[in-house]
């Protein structure tokens, strides 16, 4: 089911009329499926079987058994001729792209594209730069498609391998620049849409990766010239930068879960927490940071109540989770009960979860 497409409810008469209209298509689909299974059982690997899978996958791209059979055909019918195989694989990339334009969230299409690329790697004919530009264009069409973001990480990983193969294995500047560019890419996408969960998620992968590249190769990375390089001098410098970024998102979209999840990651992930412990033996700086964020959330919640007449569920949930990050002796149980009781009233779908949490503060 596609997002933002309303389901149409049909009465019995309309259902019958629709069935009569669709019956020829259904019969064609069944006949084609039966025919392809017969070809597979007979181990038929030729142009005929290949073209038949094309027809069926255009009708149903989620038929993973047919994708598997198609890969068998490619390997056994065309695998002995490397020139022909490269042509077939490049044509497959075009076929897959046409399918992705129509069905951008079908796992099996993305999986088949990866398979084609790895085959081209074996033939030394892969073009990761083209693939990188392609996925960039796809994310322009749907910047929140998590399949596209996951695929972008896959392409970047292979660009890294290519970068390392083309230079001294100890020179990580090319890899570092690639990841810093990706970090800036997430910033740009987030600035357009603070609800872009996939961009926030990608950022959680990039931040520790970039920092570890810099710390692990100080003699190499000193010469790099990149506008975001200065942010990664310490985990706390990254934290301060992203707290400012997320603050804007929270003010603009306090009802959106993406910004709260990222804020919680910033405040709870060991990458940042360990940096506080190393720099703050008594934990006062970390306690102060948590209280600053709690004060900010209370301020936003008050503004929401003033505008809408009720407190914001996202703010209340964030208050509860972030307060739980405090040491047990610093948590006010009365305040926690108050937050949970408000959530029980405002967010009835999760009432049971809040009631379970409430028992811990009785």
Automatic annotation (TrEMBL):
Stated EC number for the protein is 2.5.1.60
Family according to the record: Belongs to the protein prenyltransferase subunit alpha family.
* Catalytic activity of the protein: geranylgeranyl diphosphate + L-cysteinyl-[protein] = S-geranylgeranyl-L-cysteinyl-[protein] + diphosphate
Q: Please indicate which superkingdom the organism of origin belongs to.
A: Eukaryota
What name has this protein been given in UniProt?
Answer: Geranylgeranyl transferase type-2 subunit alpha
Q: Which GO terms describe its biological process?
A: endoplasmic reticulum to Golgi vesicle-mediated transport; prenylation; protein targeting to membrane
Q: Which organism is it from?
A: Candida parapsilosis
GO molecular function list: Rab geranylgeranyltransferase activity
Which key words are in the record? Prenyltransferase, Repeat, Transferase
One GO cellular component, as annotated:
peroxisome
Q: What does this protein do?
A: Catalyzes the transfer of a geranyl-geranyl moiety from geranyl-geranyl pyrophosphate to cysteines occuring in specific C-terminal amino acid sequences.
């Amino acid at each position: 089911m596609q997002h933002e497409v309303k389901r149409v409810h049909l009465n019995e008469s309309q259902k019958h009329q629709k069935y009569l209209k669709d019956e020829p298509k259904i019969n064609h689909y069944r006949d084609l499926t039966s025919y392809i299974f017969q070809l597979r059982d007979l181990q038929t690997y030729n142009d005929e079987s290949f073209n038949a899978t094309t027809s069926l996958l255009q009708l149903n791209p989620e038929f993973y058994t047919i994708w598997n059979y198609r890969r068998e055909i490619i390997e056994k019918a065309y695998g002995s001729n490397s020139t022909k195989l490269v042509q077939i694989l490049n044509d497959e990339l075009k076929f897959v792209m046409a399918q992705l334009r129509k069905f951008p969230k079908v796992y099996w299409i993305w999986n088949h594209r990866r398979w084609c690329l790895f085959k081209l790697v074996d033939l030394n004919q892969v073009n990761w730069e083209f693939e990188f530009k392609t996925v960039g264009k796809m994310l322009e069409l749907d910047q929140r498609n998590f399949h596209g973001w996951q695929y972008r990480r896959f392409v970047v990983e292979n660009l890294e391998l290519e970068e390392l193969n083309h230079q001294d294995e100890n020179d990580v500047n090319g890899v570092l620049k690639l990841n810093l560019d990706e970090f800036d890419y997430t910033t740009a996408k987030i600035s357009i849409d603070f609800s872009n969960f996939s961009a926030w998620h990608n950022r959680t992968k990039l931040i520790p990766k970039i920092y570890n590249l810099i710390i692990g190769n100080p003699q190499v990375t000193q010469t790099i010239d990149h506008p975001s390089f200065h942010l990664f001098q310490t985990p706390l410098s990254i934290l301060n930068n992203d707290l400012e970024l997320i603050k804007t998102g929270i003010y603009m979209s306090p009802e959106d879960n993406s910004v709260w999840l990222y804020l919680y990651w910033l405040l709870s992930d060991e990458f940042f927490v360990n940096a506080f412990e190393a720099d703050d033996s008594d934990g006062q700086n970390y306690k102060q940071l948590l209280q600053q964020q709690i004060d900010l959330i209370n301020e936003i919640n008050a503004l929401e109540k003033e505008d809408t007449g009720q407190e914001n569920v996202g703010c209340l949930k964030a208050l509860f989770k972030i307060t739980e990050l405090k040491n047990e002796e610093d948590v006010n149980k009365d305040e926690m009960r108050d937050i949970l009781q408000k959530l029980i009233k405002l967010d009835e779908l999760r009432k049971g979860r809040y009631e379970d949490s409430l028992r811990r503060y009785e």
